[in-house]
Write a structure and sequence with these properties.
7-stranded parallel sheet; Rossmann fold
Length: 382
């Protein structure tokens, strides 16, 4: 198949999933075309069967806000026609599904060069539904663009239920969960040798991975680690960047633990960083799935997360990780202290986390679900 993929190219879950999906599809022989305003952060510069098409937005004095959605629709239509794409797959409803809808209409109305109808699939990731899409200014167009989609997927049962509650869409929604490349995300003796770059031989390593937005509750990460390091010799690795980084750095300074906290910024080789850790802290206000927790689990890192959104669908409390109420830093710290104090239990739970990721969320299991879904959409559209 020839598939066009559009996502936000920034350091966030939807862009990561879309990029990894494209790479996996390319490895399986499909031709993948990424269409976005910049190259996705995890997309290699060159990769077999992968093509990148930049969307350029003209800036005129007339436009206070350049119309990216219109420029995107035009580029989608151009790429689809030039490279004879079979379908578009857009990640994040706003504005990508609207642009795909316009691109489909543009192609179908081109009487000079008529072609078959170009279908598009919309994958809902979370914030497009729980925050942006539910804003009264965007709710009607979000609902309309979802219902106009030729196929709709959601990354968790939670998000599917939430979408139906908020938008009352008529189009069926299929749950296809996020995934992880289990061959890439794993722990090896060679990777463990790099622990010494971040911690002493007697220290444990905790890690947080996100785009550092307010919903990730970075202050809670620092609060939890502060309690842990008072009981267990440990270090904290903060992977990512975003608007909450400065406040988190200052909180670490205020508590006098800043020399034990390493802010690593955005990283390309995430799997190698996760593999050296023992515990992941993900005290988010809401996660529609919790991709960072899954990536940690694949690396035998025990996640400690909140029990909101889709996280309970990923983490089996007490077996593959721990769940706690939002804001309950005391309980999350106690879970971390408990597991880090018992090396045997830490390793057993890490192995169970890895086994769960392999059994339920490996790319080898999830990518075929997308392929089948694409074929169903194409059959309906032919």
């Amino acid at each position: 198949m020839k598939i066009g993929i559009t996502c936000y190219p920034t350091y966030g879950g939807s862009g990561v999933v879309a990029t990894e999906l494209g790479l996996e599809l390319a490895d399986r022989g499909h031709e993948v075309h990424f269409i976005s305003y910049s190259q996705p952060i995890r997309l290699p510069k060159t990769y077999p069967n992968i093509h990148y098409h930049e969307v350029e937005v003209s800036r005129y004095p007339l436009f206070e806000y350049p119309p990216y959605d219109l420029a995107l629709a035009t580029r989608m239509a151009e790429v689809a026609e030039i490279y004879e794409l079979d379908l578009l797959h857009v990640h994040y409803a706003i504005p990508h599904s609207v642009s795909a809808m316009l691109a489909r209409q543009m192609l179908s109305c081109d009487h000079a060069r008529p072609r078959r109808r170009l279908p598009y699939v919309t994958t809902l990731h979370g914030t497009d539904i729980t925050l942006v899409g539910s804003d009264p200014s965007y709710l009607p167009i979000t609902r309309f663009s979802i219902d106009q989609s030729d196929g709709v997927t959601a990354i968790s049962d939670y998000l599917k239920r939430r979408t139906l509650e908020v938008f009352a869409v008529q189009t069926p929604i299929q749950v296809i969960p996020n995934f992880v490349n289990c061959d890439l995300y794993h722990r090896t003796p060679e990777l463990l040798e790099h622990r010494s770059e971040y911690a002493g031989a007697d220290e444990k390593i905790l890690v947080h991975l996100s785009n550092f937005r307010p919903v990730k509750r970075l202050g809670d990460v620092i609060e939890i680690f502060d309690r842990v390091q008072q009981k267990i010799p440990s270090r904290l690795l903060m992977i990512g960047d975003g608007p909450e980084r400065s406040s988190a750095e200052w909180l670490a300074v205020k508590k006098g633990i800043h020399k034990k906290v390493d802010f690593l910024g955005k990283q390309d080789r995430i799997s190698e960083k996760l593999a050296v850790a023992d515990v992941m802290l993900l005290p988010s206000q809401l996660e529609s799935f919790g991709l960072a927790a899954l990536e940690a689990m694949a690396c035998e890192v025990v996640p400690i997360t909140t029990n909101e959104g889709g996280l309970p669908e990923v983490v089996d409390h007490g077996k593959t990780g721990f769940l706690a109420p939002v804001g309950d830093v005391e309980t999350m710290a106690n879970y971390a202290i408990e597991i880090l104090s018992d090396e045997n239990k830490l390793r057993q739970m890490g192995e169970a986390a890895r086994a769960s990721a392999q059994a339920r969320f490996c790319a080898s299991k999830i990518i075929p679900m997308y392929e089948r879904f694409y074929r169903e959409v194409l059959d309906r559209s032919s």
